[in-house]
Every structure is written in C-alpha cells, then in structure tokens.
Design a protein that fits this description.
- The structure is a single chain.
- By secondary structure, the chain is mainly beta.
- It has one domain (5-315): Lipocalin (Beta Barrel).
- It has three helices and 14 strands.
- The protein has helices at residues 5-17, 23-45, 93-97, and strands at 64-71, 74-81, 91-92, 105-113, 118-133, 140-142, 145-147, 152-172, 176-201, 214-237, 242-255, 258-271, 277-292, 299-315.
- The longest helix has 23 residues, at 23-45.
- The two termini are 30 Å apart.
C-alpha cells in the first residue's frame, strides 16, 4: 500500500525523456528506485565484514517481537466519487482540495515465531488527514454535484491499514532467513467533501451542466477493502546485534464488487544491543488502488505513500 514536491523535478525529467510516461508514473518509478538503492546499500553492508566470524543475529531465535514508533510518510491521493447520474473525473485531493500531503503517525506491530520455520506478523497504523481551500479557480465535480469556481471546499480522508502475514522460512540459519509470505491487508477508507458557494446537482446524465441552486453540499463515501498479498522477505545478521531486512509483497484481485491492487516495499536496519531491547529505522513504500461498484463505495481510491520510520523493538 506517495508525492514529494522535491521529487517533482526528477519525475518531470524522466517524463521529458520518455513522453509516454505520465508524471505520476515517473514519481512512482522514483519511489521504487529509492527503495532499490536503499536495499542495495543494505546488502553491501551485509557483505564479508562482520557476520562470518561473530555469530548470527540473536533476535532470529527469539519467540516474540513487539515494535512501535513513528512513521513520516508523504502521501498522494486520487479519488473518484461517482454519482447516480454522472461519473466525474478523478480528483487529486492534495492539489485540488488542499489535503495534507505529509503527516507523522504512530505505527507498530508484532511478530510471533511459532516454530523455527513458521511465524506470524501483524502491523497497523492510522492516517487521518484534513484539507481546505477557498476561492477555487475552476469548477469542481464530485458525485452529482458541481461547485462553481470561486467556492470553498473542505475535505477529509481517513485510512486505517492493518496487515496480517504468515511467513514460511525457505532458508534459515543463525545468520540469515529467507521467507515466503502470504496474508491479508485490511484497509478501511473513508472520505467526505463539503462544497460551499454556488452549488448545483446534476439530474440529467445527458446534460452535465446545471444552474446553481444550493449554497452548500456534502459528498461522502467509505469502504472496507480486504486485499490479499503474496511476497517474500530477507533478513541478514551483519553482527550478533545488527541486521538488514528487506520485504516485498503485492497482489491484485477482484473480491465481490471490489477491485484492488497493492505493492509494498519495506527496507530496514535493526540494531539490538541488548537481549530484549533494540531500535530500527527504515523506509516504507506502498501503492494501492481500490475500486468498488457496491453500495458502500461508488468510485475509486488511488493512493500511495513513501517515507521513513523509526521504532523501538522489544524481543523475548
């Protein structure tokens, strides 16, 4: 299951060289490249210096791990809220509605090593954001509602994301572990948009224009989307107290009336100087798309995030 203004220039350069690549695609490519660069750095650090003559990474043998810390993502959100009569264009919530594009949130999880080769992992975080803009420059279409230029908008976009993953160790020794993983992301998404100014409702799908008749209107949608995933992870003990970890998972599936896809890339350094306590730092990249034709949501959510995380780790 994200974009940086600082990376906008890089993405534009990529798109300039390859005209068929959109700006959003260019940004996503840069996110993936940054993750790959970090992974390459981690693997270089896990080279010949250290682990071979100092023993394995001690936490690989510990049964339970709990971790909690801060996550600092940059987020990009594109949403379509369809009406009963018309399907308006997709909206960039950060640019059009002034939604926050970055925020610090609490993030955490737990791992249970059931046996030497089997383990279970759970992660959770919640990201709630608000935005507002006054005197919008162009007409805005949300559902069957049109806000004329000059009006005001207030927006809310909340997401709760939980991930439950089972891992089986294909390769396992004192220093290294390679796991095949499968599980489920549960995403609870909700959004609302309040339009104030010259507002009208479209009643004729053949005539998407109308005369303003309202002073304000609220459009909202929500959906709970279960998205399965498959992937793998690799952890290497550089020393008995330091390790590098990489995880890549993703999937695309249609469940009932929900179409969803996701890609997640995680890369971490873990330092555990004491038997039961340690620290971690890494990067998280997540890209998700959820489209529903059911009663909960009549539209499409597309969002991605990218950013660092820092956390405290307890093992026992």
């Amino acid at each position: 299951m994200t974009m940086l203004i600082a990376r906008g220039g890089i993405a534009t350069t990529v798109c300039g060289r390859f005209p068929g690549i959109s700006v959003e695609m260019g940004m996503q490519m840069m996110n993936i490249r940054l993750a790959v660069l970090l992974v390459s750095f981690l693997l270089l650090c896990a080279g010949p210096a250290g682990a071979a003559d100092q023993g394995g990474f001690r936490p690989l043998d510990q049964k339970f791990q709990v971790y909690i810390g801060g996550f600092f993502p940059r987020v990009s959100t594109d949403i379509t809220i369809n009406g009963e009569n018309v399907s308006p264009p997709q909206i960039d919530f950060e640019n059009v509605f002034g939604l926050e594009d970055s925020k610090t949130v609490l993030w955490g999880g737990a791992r249970w090593r059931i046996s030497r080769r089997n383990n279970l992992e759970f992660e959770f975080f919640k990201l709630n954001r608000n935005g507002s803009k006054t005197a919008v420059a162009e007409n805005i279409e949300v559902g069957d509602t049109i806000l004329s230029a000059g009006g005001d908008v207030e927006s809310v976009f909340d997401i709760s994301l939980g991930r439950l993953t089972y891992g089986f160790a294909l390769v396992r020794n004192d220093r290294m572990e390679v796991q095949l993983k499968g599980g489920l992301h549960i995403m609870d998404l909700s959004t609302s948009v309040t339009l104030s100014g010259q507002v009208c409702e479209v009643t004729d799908p053949n005539n998407p224009t109308c005369t303003p008749v309202l002073s304000s209107n609220v459009e909202s949608e929500s959906v709970t989307a279960p998205l399965p995933h498959l992937g793998g992870s690799f952890i290497y003990g550089i020393t008995p107290s330091v390790a590098a970890r990489l995880q890549i998972i993703g999937f695309a599936l249609e469940v009932d009336n929900i179409d969803g896809s996701l890609v997640e890339i995680d890369a971490d350094f873990i330092w555990q100087p004491w038997d039961h306590w340690g620290f971690g730092a890494g990067l998280r990249y997540f890209d998700a798309s959820v489209e529903s034709r059911g009663s909960e949501l009549n539209g499409k959510f597309e969002f991605d995030y990218f950013g660092p995380t820092i956390y405290v780790l307890g093992s026992f």
